[in-house]
Write a structure and sequence with these properties.
By secondary structure, this protein is an all-alpha fold. It has one domain (3-127). It contains six helices and no strands. The longest helix is centred in the N-terminal third of the chain and has 26 residues, at 3-28. The protein is elongated, with a radius of gyration of 15 Å.
């Protein structure tokens, strides 16, 4: 396959995976992050932003360290599952996450975002 087509295939798949992750993630959160961000809620933006960056780091690592398209897709789907599971466990342990995010507690939103980013980076490292 010509390099440009390979690039476009990987780019479009990566973008679709990030979009799919975004849709899944905002549906499992106990609060409406998109609405909160639109309303200027910094805590929701920090939490969602950290999660997207963490997942994207794993996607980037999968792109760099896998030898074929199917392997890349498999690692990306596995990373998506890990990110969602970590969010579920974290919010159960920090029982007050819904209230804190909705109250625009940016420190708490930053913590959730940092946890997601950390897991994404560890996940990315495991792929390499």
């Amino acid at each position: 396959m010509p390099a440009i087509l390979n690039y476009l295939l990987h780019l479009s798949t990566a973008a679709a995976l990030v979009l799919a992750f975004f849709v899944v993630y905002v549906r499992i959160t106990p609060f409406d992050e998109v609405l909160l961000v639109r309303q200027g809620n910094g805590a929701a933006a920090l939490s969602l932003g950290g999660t997207l960056i963490g997942f994207s780091a794993t996607i980037a690592s999968a792109l760099v360290h896998t030898s074929d398209y199917y392997q890349f897709t498999g690692w990306a789907l596995g990373a998506m599952l890990v990110q969602v599971l970590v969010f579920a466990v974290t919010t159960r342990l920090l029982r007050m996450s819904k209230d804190q995010i909705e109250a625009n507690n940016c420190a708490f939103g930053g913590l959730l975002g940092a946890i997601s980013l950390s897991i994404g980076l560890v996940n990315a490292g495991c792929i390499s």
